[in-house]
């Protein structure tokens, strides 16, 4: 009987996952060409009030993988010839208690060709601790790195009605900080560490002026010479159990 003959709900703790992470690394031999190994560092969201569309609160409580477990997985893949790594999936890399030590030790012990991160909450970038994390990312990661900001909207009313994690002014400050430390070009010719802006349409409280707010802020970044690596524009997916589900 096939293992795929029925649907099962799997939600492993990180204590369980560490048993399989290293043992499962050899599967990479079955995947041809260059591979970027994406490593999960946390799940769930550290915010007490979640965004209207977010499913993290439905799936997981906030959990962080321990640094030794992450390093063991990186080393296992490195022994198999893997040199490209991305610390991904987490809702906010800056919220990890060992954010600096993880990348510092990966650089020291493995020295990969590529080391990038994923999602970042602008609110945590503008703190004193966040500034230290930013400097560490520039130092230990590789150029072309992106902090994906889940801005979703620059419209203050949309921010309020959807409990978004960052208001326009906070995002602006975070963009300036990343430009301050990360806009220098690295060894591959790309800037070391820049923000990416994620915008979402279909949120609660949108109006005809919503996109005007988006354009005004993006133009402000451009006029002030602030660099953005990329902009993602998407439509919201609505799932049962989220606050936005009850509005449609």
From TrEMBL:
Record-linked Pfam families: Radical_SAM
Limits of the Radical SAM core domain: 31-248
SMART domains the UniProt entry points to: Elp3 (SM00729)
GO molecular function ontology, one term from the record: iron-sulfur cluster binding
Organism of provenance: marine sediment metagenome
Family matches, as PROSITE patterns: RADICAL_SAM (PS51918)
Official protein name in the record: Radical SAM core domain-containing protein
InterPro entries (alphabetical): Elp3/MiaA/NifB-like_rSAM, rSAM, rSAM_horseshoe, rSAM_sf
